[in-house]
Input
Amino acid sequence: EAQVTQNPRYLITVTGKKLTVTCSQNMNHEYMSWYRQDPGLGLRQIYYSMNVEVTDKGDVPEGYKVSRKEKRNFPLILESPSPNQTSLYFCASCISWSSHGLKGSYNEQFFGPGTRLTVL
Amino acid sequence: AQTVTQSQPEMSVQEAETVTLSCTYDTSESNYYLFWYKQPPSRQMILVIRQEAYKQQNATENRFSVNFQKAAKSFSLKISDSQLGDTAMYFCAFMKHVYGGATNKLIFGTGTLLAVQP
Output
């Protein structure tokens, strides 16, 4: 079954304790990204990756790190979590767009099930 | 920068009735994609419907349809024959087109919580 998995699904931690949220996809997608969802703010992109060893900042990258050593995995790292990083996190993946001319191609993004993180 | 605005934080509809969720966006781009995502209590993000900006015809998917007004930068979602399973948070989202494809980055609105009443 084609899917994006995230672990853990729920995590309660304390300020300053390093943590990693894993994301894995089995669809051979080049593009992967992380979003955080906060009430009244919708989802905002944290980081994205166009392919292995290619990552870049999204709109809210402060306090986060990512790596892309393998195509299927895109972990989100919080080196020193703070309470303002309490949020719902989503990983997403899709095929990179390919040249189909001006009218282009849209590639559906597949979302993971979400990780509820609480930082005390 | 692009922005997406959903001005209705919460809405309620009776089962079998029709409801329309509003979305407006701001962009200087001429080519882009618009989406409606559904997030039920399970929190899973589910794509409901998408619209390519270059298409004049409004997209439809079974009971879901959109009213895309490009000049007004408006993209509303109509749900017909509402069902209890439609109860969810609905997000409007924008994706910029670049030559050869799309950026893959989604810009979301703040969401509308829809409750379908029995």
In short: Chain B has a mean pLDDT of 93.
